Each structure stands twice: as C-alpha cells, then as structure tokens.
Amino acid sequence: MKLISQQFLHNIAPQLDLLNTLGGGVAQAQVKVHKREQGVVIRVSAPSVQPETFHVVLNNNTLSVFAEYRHSPEDKLAAPLFVQTFDLPETLDVTRIDAVHQDGELRVRIPYEDPADRSREINIKRR
C-alpha cells in the first residue's frame, strides 16, 4: 500500500525547493541610494539572484524594487526574496526612469526634473 503517490511528490517538490532556497540559499540584498548631480541612482546588489527575477514597479510616486523566486518561469507560486520601496520626491522625473542589470547589480536611474519644464504660462480662456 502506497501512502504517498508519485503525483503528490511531483506537485510538492517545487514547494520544498522553494522553502529550502528561502531557508538559506539566497544572499541578503544590499541597497544603496546615491544622489548625483543629474539625479538619483538606486543600486541593488544581490549576487545570487538571477536578473530575470528582478522587478521595478512605479505606482504614483512610490517605487518598488523586488525580486521573487519561482521554481520554474511558468509556476504560479512565487516567494519574495526581498522588497524595498521608495517614496520619490516631486523633483524627480518619473517619466524617464530606467533600470539596468550589470555585473550582479541592478541600477535604477531616476533623473531630476528640469525646472524649466515645471513652469509655464497658463492660457486664459475667454467665454
């Protein structure tokens, strides 16, 4: 008599692998924010995290940088490896954010808004 079926083992294996990875298989991400003359650079260093697991999401003026673990790309089950959120000031141009992954590090660059673009004369309509 079999107590555990092959199908059960096949279905539970990704979850066990996920728990094993979260239990010690991933390095802690290091996040640094650098203010430069042209804008802000957010650097996330996580050497053991694959580039395709990173995500950068902008919601209003809140930027979220996170990575998630999936046993395979089509798995619906995902676990966060790390999550960092940033409240961006109005002086940054959120329409020109870009992100680059290079040498085991994710760099998110956010330029400052051009002050000339912020001021403009408002046309007065006649009725």
UniProtKB/TrEMBL annotation:
<dbReference type="InterPro" id="IPR002068">
    <property type="entry name" value="A-crystallin/Hsp20_dom"/>
</dbReference>
<dbReference type="Pfam" id="PF00011">
    <property type="entry name" value="HSP20"/>
</dbReference>
<feature type="domain" description="SHSP">
    <location>
        <begin position="22"/>
        <end position="127"/>
    </location>
</feature>
<comment type="similarity">
    <text>Belongs to the small heat shock protein (HSP20) family.</text>
</comment>
<dbReference type="InterPro" id="IPR008978">
    <property type="entry name" value="HSP20-like_chaperone"/>
</dbReference>
<protein>
    <recommendedName>
        <fullName>SHSP domain-containing protein</fullName>
    </recommendedName>
</protein>
